[in-house]
Backbone:
């Protein structure tokens, strides 16, 4: 179990760091450009993984990796769309909770056995994921009341379900398939995203994602990354590094799924917001709330309990 916990936690770190770089570079490149370039470099990492590791082809692995790629690509786009609509402080924890709950429910229904202490740790990790995903609020005397709109809520539920199903589908692949499903997951996502770059409106502006009328030529001030300026080489390099991290994270996820329990791996990997939050705190000097610190403590406790169970 210690090996599975270590690999799954490593995957969550790579995923979280990739998310941070993706969100950071999307401010200059737009979400679609960033997502496509991240998937491109991640697919290169997956291709290298095929050449340096042992794997076996099977129809089950082919379909599992391909379907997981569809789920992941759709989940990523709807994830960004939901957070763009907001409120992020409510939608991000909702998506994380749904994303993690799907594999946990599937593991319980399919009878994957766990020690009672491990199930307690799973619940703690679910709570930790939710708490870590809640961003720190600005210091204001009377913060506005935020509510989830019908559109934002629907996108959040759809994002959580599809991202959760991508993990469940990857778990179906046989252990002997190695990193083959991880490669397919990334390659299929790239194939789905790349054609949209041909549409100028999608390539040059995020207005389509935020639901604002791009044709009018005017966007609300709060709509980030709309019509961004030219991006320098540094931004592209950082975006590429985000893709490398995503590719490594995907490989580690599949390795963990082959070796361990679906519920355990899913909840540990879902702790990826921890890396994102810590990087935002260290690099961008963003605040970390007490609620997030509590989530970090719960996450550490859950990981220790899973490691010794």
Residues:
């Amino acid at each position: 179990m210690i090996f599975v916990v270590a690999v799954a936690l490593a995957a969550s770190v790579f995923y979280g760091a990739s998310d941070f770089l993706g969100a950071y570079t999307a401010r200059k490149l737009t979400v679609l450009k960033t997502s496509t370039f991240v998937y491109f470099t991640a697919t290169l990492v997956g291709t290298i993984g095929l050449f340096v590791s042992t794997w076996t082809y099977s129809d089950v692995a082919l379909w599992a990796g391909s379907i997981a790629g569809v789920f992941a690509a759709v989940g990523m786009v709807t994830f960004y769309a939901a957070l763009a609509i907001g409120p992020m402080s409510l939608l991000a924890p909702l998506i994380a909770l749904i994303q993690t709950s799907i594999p946990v429910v599937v593991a319980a229904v399919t009878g994957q056995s766990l020690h009672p202490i491990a199930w307690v740790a799973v619940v703690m990790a679910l709570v930790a994921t939710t708490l870590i995903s809640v961003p720190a609020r600005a210091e204001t005397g009377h913060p506005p009341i935020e509510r989830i709109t019908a559109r934002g809520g629907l996108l959040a539920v759809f994002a959580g379900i599809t991202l959760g199903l991508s993990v469940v589908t990857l778990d179906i692949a046989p252990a002997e398939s190695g990193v083959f499903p991880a490669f397919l997951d990334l390659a299929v996502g790239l194939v789905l995203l790349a054609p949209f770059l041909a549409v100028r409106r999608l390539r040059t502006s995020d207005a389509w994602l935020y639901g604002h009328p791009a044709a009018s030529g005017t966007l609300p001030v709060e709509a980030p990354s709309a019509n961004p300026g030219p991006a320098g080489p540094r931004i592209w390099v950082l975006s590429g590094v985000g893709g490398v991290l995503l590719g490594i994270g995907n490989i580690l996820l599949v390795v963990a799924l082959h070796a361990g329990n679906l519920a355990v791996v899913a909840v540990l990997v879902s702790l990826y917001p921890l890396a994102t939050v810590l990087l935002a705190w260290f690099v961008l000097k963003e605040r970390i709330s007490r609620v997030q610190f509590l989530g970090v403590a719960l996450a550490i406790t859950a990981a220790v309990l899973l490691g010794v169970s």
